[in-house]
Structure formats: C-alpha cells, structure tokens
Amino acid sequence: MLLNNNDRDEIMPILDFKEIAQANLTNGLQDTFEMFARDFFMMLGFEIKDGPDRGQDGGRDLIISEKREGIIGDTEIDWLVSCKHKAHSGSAVQSNDEIDIKGRVETFGAQGFIGFYSTIISSPLGRNLEGLKRHFDVKVFDREIIEKMILENPKGKTIAKRYFPVSFSK
C-alpha cells in the first residue's frame, strides 16, 4: 500500500533527537543527552539516586529508583541506566556499545538495567538483553518509546521545550 503525503506526516517522528548535542564532542554540551535522560525519568516519577557526571563512570550514566506498590508489600527497584546517543550518526546501538551489562548491574547494586537510546538497538544486542532477563529486569527506551512517553505525559511539554526547541516550536 502506498502512503500519500498526509499519511507520511502522521507517522513521522515529532521530536528530532539531533537537536540534542552529540555526546562524543568535547564542547561543554556533551552531557546533554544524559541530563535529558535524568529529566525524562524524573518526569515519570523515578527518584534519581546517582545522576550524570563526567569521567570514568564504570558504565553507569544514572542510577534511578522505582517504588512499586504490591499486594503483599512495597518494593524499591534500583535501575542502572545506560545512555547512548547515536541520533547524529543514525547507527543502531551495538553489543560492543554495552559491555558486561550483568557485571555493571551487580557492581552498582542495581536490580535492573535500562538502555536509554536515541536510536534503535541491533539484533545481537537485543538477543543479549533478552538473555539477561533471566537474571534481572531489562527495559529499552528507544527514540519512539521516549517520544511517545513525552508526548503523552502532561509534564512532557516542559521536557520537549527544553531539549527539542525547534521540534517544539513546530
């Protein structure tokens, strides 16, 4: 089935992740994607236990905490968040971008792993993450999921305005 121009507009991403500065350029803005991730998770109601910083982080961009209410009691889950901002290159996040996830989760005392990515994951990384689900919770937030959650959340307007000013103005 062919799409007409109006249909294409409806499925095009609204937020352009290239508006967020590249993480691999030393220009003072290289931490912006991690700060965006921090603000995104705060918007969702997570507590930020360990935020972005510069230097050797041992594969930890954020540690966030989620409070879960259950029938037999409440629990708190700490998540290790790994941010990869590849929107400028358009490359998928590869297995070699995420080294020793299990070891990193254990080192930081987390009970789960979140990949926070401005592109999609590669198939090999997807298989690796699927295998890790035997050991702990694993979630992936790619560009599409992040955008959907921002646009559906009442607080998302503030995030969009700050990190995607051009997209927001459109």
UniProtKB/TrEMBL annotation:
GO molecular function, one term: DNA binding
Taxonomic superkingdom: Bacteria
Single Gene Ontology BP annotation: DNA restriction-modification system
Position of the signal peptide: none
Limits of the Restriction endonuclease type IV Mrr domain: 31-111
Protein name: Restriction endonuclease type IV Mrr domain-containing protein
Gene source species: Paenibacillus bovis
